[in-house]
Fold this protein.
Amino acid sequence: MFYRKGRVLLAGDAAHIHHSVGGRGLNIGAQDAVNLGWKLAQVVKGISPESLLDTYSAERHPVAARVRRNTMAQIALLRRGEDGLKAARDIVAELLAMDEPRQRFGAMMSGLDVHYDLGKGHPLLGRRMPDLDLTIDGRPLRLFTLLHGARGLLLNFSKTGGLDIAPWADRIDRIYADCDGPWQLPAIGQVAAPGAVLVRPDGHVAWVGDQRQHELANALTRWFGPAAAWKADTGLVHFPT
């Protein structure tokens, strides 16, 4: 089970195969593709360095290893003829009759509990952004419709101030939006609504904050390449080498 060897990148069943129960292989394969696609495009276009592709294996390999472990446990519970296994199945069935365990297992089976290690901070960091009901310029809109362009998304929920992303404007959409909080996340429940979030094209949150521009610039550079420099005489941009 590996994801990259030199210029060879694997995704889906080419990297891992799982039991069909629960559709885990389908979920994890689709997530592989979404995680890799935008990163590969940025490297091919010269926007980001090749090191961005290292984050693909670093993020997806632990997810696949966890799914493999869970699949092995499921297969063990499906075996027949052993009293101990029947007792284990009965205990698991009792747990899944409870709200919290059922929600946790549901998030695990669907892949909605995937949490990439992007450092400490707000509970949203590294997790999949929920598909919130937003209000933008007085119009209702679902958040995921803003990701259809496969670009980064900076959502500013603050009423005052702004975050300067001009050097990344060709790669990032900045949206001022209103949204009622707190927000409900699979597996972890309610979280406080932040002032702003940076969402990657795969829907995972790369930065959570307020008006701390330096931390945002670091996140933008890490995930969307170095800042573009504007040429005042032509209005064109170039990327520093």
